[in-house]
């Protein structure tokens, strides 16, 4: 190995160390896959509970279909399902992330993980409070789009401290949120795609890219 190759190898090692110290790179693609599965199960629970048929399963509920008015009970049930999905996703996410970190001899909880969570949860908490305000003012059709938009902003905000690939997921979530804000009757469809299918696609891509 000549001097130039040694220098390049040294620079590569330095860059890798700097990346490990500044970015949380232990996120597992399996976390995204399971988050997507939980979202699909949640959307299925909503559809079954409200008796959606094939031609109405992407709408908010029977009350809105028949009267055009917001159905508050739907959003309460939807909120419970969404909260359950978040808890399950975080639990499985921590499990797979800690497993990957242990395999790569990395710390699960370090300064980069703290920065990641802080920048992720600021938009998420803000979005949750904003959705509560929307419910208080009975602006219910905007609740589902807001969850997608604020989640996308949270991913963009946190992407500076983890893998850059998460930025594309965040952008897609924002686009879906804006689309569902325009076509409000298809909010549940956009929500299912955003939190369900996109998570599964993203998680699968990350798993084969970084973990295989």
Protein architecture, described:
This protein is globular. With about 210 residues, it is mainly α. The chain has helices spanning about 5-20, 30-50, 60-65, 70-105, 110-135, 145-160, 165-180, 185-210. It has eight helices and no strands. It has one domain.
How are the SSEs ordered, and which strands pair?
Layout: H1 3-22, H2 29-49, H3 62-67, H4 72-103, H5 111-136, H6 143-158, H7 166-182, H8 187-211
Helix pairs in contact: 2-4, 2-8, 5-6, 6-7, 6-8, 7-8
List the total number of helices. 8
The total number of structural domains is 1
Q: What is the CA-atom radius of gyration, in angstroms?
A: 20 Å
Q: Give the amount of beta strand, in percent.
A: under 5%
SSE-based structural type: mainly alpha
Q: What series of H and E elements makes up the topology?
A: HHHHHHHH
Give a quick account of the main beta sheet: strands, pairing sense, barrel closure: none
Percent of residues in helices comes to over 70%
Stretches where pLDDT is under 50 for at least 5 consecutive residues are: 13-22, 53-58, 60-69
- The overall pLDDT, averaged over residues, is 77
Overall form = globular
Please report the total strand number as a whole number: 0
The span between the termini is 29 Å
């Amino acid at each position: 190995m000549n001097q130039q190759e040694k220098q390049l190898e040294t620079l590569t090692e330095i860059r890798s160390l700097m990346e490990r110290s500044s970015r949380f790179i232990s996120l597992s693609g399996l976390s995204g896959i399971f988050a997507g599965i939980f979202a699909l199960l949640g959307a299925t629970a909503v559809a079954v509970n409200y008796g959606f048929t094939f031609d109405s399963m992407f709408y908010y509920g029977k009350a809105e279909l028949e009267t055009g008015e917001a159905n508050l009970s739907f959003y309460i049930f939807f909120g419970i399902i969404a909260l359950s999905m978040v808890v399950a996703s975080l639990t499985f996410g921590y499990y797979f992330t800690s497993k990957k970190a242990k395999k790569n001899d990395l710390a699960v909880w370090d300064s980069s993980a703290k920065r990641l969570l802080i920048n992720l949860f600021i938009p998420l908490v803000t979005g949750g409070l904003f959705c509560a305000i929307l419910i208080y003012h009975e602006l219910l059709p905007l609740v589902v789009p807001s969850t997608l938009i604020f989640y996308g902003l949270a991913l963009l905000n946190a992407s500076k401290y983890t893998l850059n690939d998460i930025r594309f997921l965040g952008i897609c979530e924002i686009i879906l949120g804006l689309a569902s804000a325009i076509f409000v009757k298809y909010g549940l469809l956009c929500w299912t795609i955003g939190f369900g299918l996109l998570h599964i696609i993203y998680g699968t891509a990350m798993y084969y890219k970084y973990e295989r």
